[in-house]
Design goal:
The protein is an alpha/beta fold. The protein has 2 domains: 226 residues, 3-Layer(aba) Sandwich (Rossmann fold), CATH 3.40.50.150; 127 residues, no CATH class. The chain is built from 10 helices and 14 strands. The chain has a 9-stranded mixed β-sheet, sandwiched between helices. Strands 9-8-10-11-14 form a 5-stranded antiparallel β-sheet. The protein is globular and about 70 Å long. The chain starts with 7 loop residues before the first strand and ends in a 5-residue tail after the last helix.
């Protein structure tokens, strides 16, 4: 397509705190409408995007303005491992149907549709929700492509794998989204200075992340913040990032969500919002690829068809689905940042009580154990008072 000089117009559904919008605006887009049901998130959006209309309920939207792209990080509560895993039968995740309703009823369909959800959507019920999404896009006349992108490859030391689906009426979305999909796999440094892990786990897994943190989460089932811990191998200490560093680890500026402090339990709500957000630099990269859309398609290696969905694929109306092998979850030229170089500025020691609970679970769990890590955990607990 020939790009016009004016910014591409963006309509955002399930806007959260504006990860898609912030990233796409950095790439050259202009937001014309947002829709978000959470009043706390709406307060953040109103603070950060004061000129943009914000609708409160996608189910009550009768139409959307003419635009070039519709984005939706549609609710994952019924898809994620932490949720009920009801898939499209869940009350929240089934709301994706309203995205397709609004597109179908548009006077002029947007050229692009960009969707995001947890990577587990590919596995739950044999990828039911992803199959539904691609089928709906095809029925609307869109060609589509999907892949998993890891925030770690976009300049932020957070291991955060998310599924992105890009559709287009006239472009080849696979040429935009699948850049670098069969690039060289990244190997972690054998001697990381810092390692991220979940102190709330320890029975079946740790979220072990050398020179990164495991994915930020909104919180427990009780909406209690559960930030990851960081093991500093040089000081034998254990800390957790505060909300301001969590915002930075998603690509937002410090205090992006400060408007939430006006609500009861504001800090808890800020963690929920940040943990559910789209990483800004990932959205920016996709936006830059859209604006400079290619017309060619690489000669990718395919995989044999199976009942399980592959990690990447593309297709469209009256076109066969092409399933691809994947060796990288980042762009062809990744920007990989180390946690030890990130300069955390808002952090606090993990309590000895939390470390004691984690260590007790970890010691008896049938997990592979790093002995240096285990020794530092025990040393931390032997200190006369919290580090």
């Amino acid at each position: 397509m020939i790009r016009e000089s004016k910014p591409l117009r963006l309509v955002s559904l399930f806007s959260g705190i504006g990860g898609f919008e912030q990233g796409l605006e950095k790439a050259g887009f202009s937001t014309t409408l947002m829709c978000e049901s959470d009043p706390v998130a709406r307060a953040v959006l109103a603070h950060r995007f004061p000129e943009v209309e914000i609708a409160p309920d996608v189910t009550k939207l009768n139409s959307i303005p003419n635009c070039d792209i519709v984005t939706a990080g549609w609710p994952c509560q019924d898809i994620s491992l932490a949720g009920g895993m009801k898939g499209l039968r869940g009350d929240r995740s089934s709301l994706i149907g309203d995205v397709f309703r609004l597109i179908a009823e548009s006077d002029h369909k947007p050229e692009y549709v960009l969707l995001e959800n947890v990577a587990f959507a590919l596995d739950l019920h044999k990828g039911e929700s992803v199959r539904f999404v691609t089928t709906q896009l095809e029925q609307l006349g869109y060609r589509w492509a999907y892949r998993i992108l890891d925030t770690r490859y976009f300049g932020l030391p957070q291991r955060r794998r998310r599924l992105f689906v890009l559709a287009s009426l006239h472009d080849k979305p696979e040429a935009i989204l699948l850049d670098g999909i069969q690039g060289e796999a990244r190997s972690n440094s054998p001697e990381p200075k810092m390692v991220g892990f979940y102190w709330t786990e320890g029975n079946r897994g740790l979220g072990w992340s050398p020179e990164a943190i495991p994915p930020l989460k909104g919180g427990s089932g009780l909406s209690i913040p559960s930030p990851p811990a960081i093991w500093d191998r040089h000081t034998s200490s254990f800390v957790s990032p505060g909300i301001k560093d969590a915002e930075r680890l998603q690509g937002f500026e410090r205090d992006w969500t400060e408007a939430a402090d006006a609500f009861p339990k504001g800090t808890r709500k800020r963690w929920l919002l940040v943990g559910n957000a789209v990483s800004v630099p990932v959205a920016q990269w996709i936006g830059q690829r859209i604006i400079g859309a290619r017309t060619g398609v690489d000669d990718w290696k395919t995989v044999p068809h199976s009942d399980r969905l592959p990690k990447a694929a593309y297709g469209g109306p009256n076109a066969p689905v092409t399933e691809l092998s994947v060796t990288s979850e980042g762009p062809a030229h990744p920007d990989i940042a180390n946690l030890s170089d990130f300069e955390l500025s808002d952090f606090y020691p993990v309590s000895k009580r939390a470390i004691a609970g984690f260590t007790g679970r970890f010691e008896v769990a049938p997990l592979r154990k790093n002995q240096e890590f285990l020794q530092d955990l025990r040393r931390y607990l032997s200190l006369p008072k919290a580090a």
